[in-house]
């Protein structure tokens, strides 16, 4: 969802410091993202395959993996300032950044909404009846995403009207703020019912995991969308291209979620933090 005047290419006319920043960000994203995908893939083998949450995380691993495949091509481009892989693949690499961002946002939303349903005891657990249902639902989500996104990338990429950008920004900000408000309410409610070291309670840890994902949404996705408001109003100012690219690269940092999630979920780390909180 670029502004109406943006090009359907990896256009980047900027100073070397911006190139260095982009190369650093994408290199860190690639290394951390690959490590997180590998580690989480092994952990998923031990998780309940019928759980809707597990299915959402599996899909998150898939969308991260698809995006990570395109990252080395971005790094090569920013390092050499040349694109040698053809126009169509250029659109794929450019569009994959947006495809990854919105699908990641969708699976985060599913994960967090399910946590809310369980917390308010509307559901004890949210599960599929059979593995086939989980697979069918995942396929349906991907088909819907592809049907919506692919035509945009290849036919209208860079030609969307400003109104569409504003609607997307407003919807995303509203959803993130709503999820944050609900999460703060749930954490306060949990804290009031617990005593002693909060880290020893599984319910408190579960709420912190949800807050962790909301934090990623706020840090990775909001800067890009807030800047886009200014960017689409001043699209003729070529000096903003480099800032826009950096804001978009921040959305890719969400690939580190699985890596950080695995680290923060380790028993040893929890024990150390618990010890520090007791001190």
List keywords for this structure.
279 residues, mainly alpha, Rhopdopsin 7-helix transmembrane proteins, 9 helices, globular, disordered N terminus, disordered C terminus
Map the helices and strands:
Layout: H1 16-44, H2 52-80, H3 87-119, H4 131-155, H5 162-193, H6 202-233, H7 240-252, H8 257-264, H9 267-278
Helix pairs in contact: 1-2, 1-7, 1-8, 2-3, 3-4, 3-5, 3-6, 3-7, 5-6, 6-7
Membrane topology: Multi-pass membrane protein
Protein name: G-protein coupled receptors family 1 profile domain-containing protein
InterPro entries: GP183-like (IPR047160), GPCR_Rhodpsn_7TM (IPR017452)
Plain-language structure description:
With 279 residues, the chain is mainly alpha-helical. It has one domain: Rhodopsin 7-helix transmembrane proteins (Rhopdopsin 7-helix transmembrane proteins, Up-down Bundle), CATH 1.20.1070.10. The chain has nine helices and no strands. The longest helix has 33 residues. The radius of gyration is 20 Å and the shape is globular. The N terminus and C terminus are likely disordered. Keywords: G-protein coupled receptor, Membrane, Receptor, Transducer, Transmembrane, Transmembrane helix. It is found in: Membrane. It is a multi-pass membrane protein. This is G-protein coupled receptors family 1 profile domain-containing protein. Its main location: membrane.
